[in-house]
Amino acid sequence: MTDVDVIIVGAGPTGLMLAAELRLAGARPLVLERRPEQGTTPKAHGLSGQILDLLHYRGLLDRVRGLVTDPVQPHRFPFGGVHVDLTRFEEPPLKALSVRQQSLERLLEEHAIELGTEVRRGHEVVGLRQDDESVTAEVRGPDGSYEVTAPYLVGCDGGRSPVRSMAGIGFPGTTYPEVNRIGQVKIPDGLTVHDNGDIETPELGRIEAGFTRTDTGVFALGSLTPGIVFIQTTEDDPGELDDDVPMTLAELGDSIRRVLGGDVPLGDPVRLSRYQFSARQAERYREGRILLAGDAAHLLPSTGTAINVGMSDSVNLAWKLAAEIQGRAPEGLLDTYHAERHAAGARALLQSRAQVALRRGHDEAAEALRAVFQELLDDEQAARRLSAHVAGTDTRYPMPGSGHPLAGMFVPDLALETDEGPTSVAELLRTARPVLLDLAGRPELRELAQGRVDVHTAKAEDRPADVLLIRPDGYVAWAGDTDADGLREALATWFG
Q1: Where do the FAD-binding domain residues begin and end (predicted)?
Q2: Is residue 371 assigned to a domain?
Q3: What are the tens digits of pLDDT across the range 223-239?
Q4: How many domains does the chain have?
Q5: Is position 316 within any domain?
Q6: What per-residue confidence (pLDDT) applies to 171?
Q7: Of 68, 69, 86, 292, whose Cβ has the fewest other Cβ atoms within 10 Å?
């Protein structure tokens, strides 16, 4: 006898997104979080990439935009010690919003609870056992120990994941010695900020915006908000950080002094955080009835991608897991979670490890590499390609039954005209249901899909194909015109 359908360990963005997606698919998740309250240590400070499109498709993007603390949209993003300039693009190929992780977590928790999710804080999973039918979690809660059983359990419990360890899943890779300390501070007396972003200090004189490299580390300087200066230091430290210990302004000042050899005046802090980079990926994302998602499955040695990749894991997994629990999944459906997302995680690791190679060198050869790379990124096509890689918008899953260029790609948000009035792909995917979208009047293909997916007939000004079969995660499972055999194969593969 099971208590819930899925136990989710961890109430970060990945776990909460998974809970909401499972509820949309009709499953009953339970979220267990060891911390009694949301952490106060600042972590990620932005949301970028493919997940923004998915949040739009779920009707959540406007709520996320309401969390934005910095009205200036980032048009340049760092890539391993160089910058990708997107100011030339009318529609930037990498979308981003300045959203604090704590605010995002609160929104996602509210969303999951609105849909009927139970979230238990202060409940730590201390043991696991599984058999052919279920997983049982041993939990230590505020009122004592207890057990909870479900058909499946998903570890969304971070890079040091106890779930991953208890499941016996290897996590090979590298932890780099560099420690990054970030401060967004108000501009104090004694610090002059020039129009080009350079600063003038009493002790060190003028410091250029961008990256200053010394024998002891890197000092990064920038500003997006009037009256606020962004500072980051990077130093090698072989020790391992304790993420739960908050960083102080004095710690940032000490780090600046070690890197630059002098003091930089610092005003009141708006944000202080530190982090250490690792490049690791779980050997497998599934061990029996235990699965991994987010940082528990992969750690990326760069900023700006981890939340995107982790939440995308959740959206890919939820509909497959719900179908398995509800007895309507075709054979092998759940195994495609590892196949698709392990490959996507490996690709994210590829670009983030490339950033490590670009940023860690301090000799003349490394400077030359960064200079050449920066020149290449001045080319529009190179900037577009790298942006798509970082965003995950170039992710393509293998799809049987269709050789169409759109098959396996994230579906564009087409403007649609129906008999009931105007709508869009985003509106059709609001409920996280699979969709067959007939754009050319193909009743014989609509008939094949009846009863297995939602069927819609519409017209689009820019029609990429006659018919699109769209999975709940927004990826095109099949696209074509009169190939009934191909559509039949795709329907059987994904929806039984």
Answers
A1: 3-349
A2: no
A3: 767 788 889 998 887 66
A4: 3
A5: yes
A6: 98
A7: 69
